[in-house]
Every structure is written in structure tokens, then in C-alpha cells.
What does this fold into?
Amino acid sequence: MRSKSAENWQNYWRGAYAAGNKVANGTDLSAVSQFWHNFFVLAGKKLVDPASPLRVLDVASGGGAILKYAVDGLTPEYVSPFCMDISASAVKGVCERAIGTQGIVADAATWPLIPECMDVIVSQFGVEYAGLAAVSDMGLSVRPGGHLAMLLHYHDGAIHRECTANLQGIVGLERCRFIELSLAMFRDAFEVLRGGPREPYEASSKALIPAFRKLEDLMANLGMSVANGLLLQVYKDVDHIHTNLPKFDRDEVLAWLQSLHRELAEFAGRMGSMCDAAADRGAFEQLLKQIRENGFEILEAGALVSDQHDWPLAWKLVAGR
Ligand SMILES: C[S@@+](CC[C@H](N)C(=O)[O-])C[C@H]1O[C@@H](n2cnc3c(N)ncnc32)[C@H](O)[C@@H]1O
It folds into this structure.
């Protein structure tokens, strides 16, 4: 049976491709780009063998951002790219855009590949969703002489803090029942437009006021852009529709709010799984120990920092077998 989290990611990637979003970029941070550039251009080049393409697997590949670094950084004909993700839509999207990529739809928690079948295995904010044991398992599929490189979520780091704030924002929105109360108010308001009674509308619009105030507090405390600006957007949209009601179609408004409700629940699920996946120092050090025991030499390990953030962005890890 698929987990709620797997379903959540599948809905996310299906929706992202359906909306035609730009999904290949991964995390748009210069320290992150620099890490992958250094790995593929500086370290990876040494591994390239013109006689047989380098098998590079991106685990929990999402939009395939890291494979793009591999293909751009190394000569494309020397790379044989593979992507793996729990979401079939994510894998399909990468294989359709990056011709020649071989896709694997799998849960990294039950590691699906045989030992020593890849030259390079990479992951960015991905494999740890399957638990840190999966990081150690995936290392076993690197051939002797090959490399493992990854960026992992950092507990209490910049991304973790942002995800925590996003989650608080969505949970706060859920708790004050802003969407349910807006739905009730709009149902009653459209009835008034059709000549129905005013009293239910007066009661439901009054009941919505504290939820508006709660949203204002949440944005004041967590920042206006919290949850990718979703709180601010829903606040403004409900207000705008309410003020201009005759211009809107009742069924479209109600359907929009209902789908927003689902979207927010899924967003909160992704934020929660990101927070749960973040490793603290103790867990990271335990992972390094396990990777050494699997026959790797640790080439680079520690916090990935950026001068644009007060807290580390990720744990970085490069190991050679
Ligand atoms: C935050 S996204 C990162 C995607 C990509 N690596 C990047 O940096 O842009 C996390 C990815 O992990 C995938 N994922 C989550 N749990 C997984 C699991 N148990 N096994 C494999 N993939 C998983 C999700 O579908 C999603 O594509």
C-alpha cells in the first residue's frame, strides 16, 4: 500500500507537470550550485572513461536538477543518466525532458538496486525522506572506485526553519478554519444575490472576522511570504471575491476553495516530511560512520553554508569507494 507521503509527492509532481511549471531547477541557491559544480566538474571528470559512459543515478530526483549538473558538467556522451523517485510523474517528466535518461519508480526505503551497479550516486534533499538507513543502502550500489555525493536536509538549518514556519502557517490557517468559514460565508452570500434571506449571511460573515484577524497575526509573526505566499494570497482573494461578489460564479468560487483546502493539506504534508527528514549532527555523524563501514573514504563532509543565510543550508557529503 502506498503511504500518504508517497501519494502527496505523486500529486505534487503530477500537478507541477500538468501546470507546466518549471520543475527542473531544484534549489536555486548559489552555494548548492557550487557544490554540484565542484563535484561533477572537478571531481567527476576524473571518473570519466571514454570507453564506457559513467552511470550516474540521482535518487529522489524530483525534477532532475542534479542530472542536469552531471550532463552539463561532464561531456554528455560520457554520461549514462538514471533517475529514481517514488513519484511516477516525476520520473516520467525527467525521462521525457532529458532524452536518454533511464527512470526507476521506487521507494528508496526498500532499496531496489543490486550492489555495485552505478559509478556515481547522488541525491539532493531526497534520499533522506526514505530515512537515513536508505542513504547507507544506496551506497552499496556504488561500484568500487565510484562516488557518492549528496546534500541532506539540516535540522535547524535555513531550509528546515523555513519549512517549519510554512507548516506553522498552514496549521494556523487550518486551526482558525478560514477556508471552511469562507465557504459557509460565500454559500450564504450567493443566496442573498439570488434573493435569499440576509440573516445567515450576516452570521457567517461575522463568524469569518476572527479568522481574518488570525491570518493577519500569522503573517505578522511568520512573514508575509510564509508558505510561498499562500496565506497572503488566500486572504486577499477571499476579500476581493467578497467585495466583488456579483462578478463571480458561485460554483467556481466554492470549487476553488475546496481545491485550495486539499492543496494546503498536501503542502503541509510535504513540509512536515521535510522537517522529519532533517538530520541533526548526531544522526549525520552516525551516517558517516556507517558509510565508512561500507568501504567508503569520506572526501568531504559537514555543513553547507552560504553568506546569504544565517544558518547552514544542508549537510554535504562526498565519499569515494
Ligand atoms: C524536496 S524534493 C527534491 C527533489 C530533487 N532532488 C531536487 O533537489 O530538486 C524530494 C523528492 O523526494 C521524492 N521522495 C520522497 N520520498 C521518497 C522515497 N521514499 N523514495 C524515493 N523518492 C522519494 C519526492 O517525490 C521528491 O521528488
In short: The domain at 4-157+278-320 is CATH 3.40.50.150 (Rossmann fold). The beta strands are 54-59, 79-85, 102-105, 118-124, 142-153, 297-304, 314-320. The chain has two domains: 4-157+278-320, 159-274.
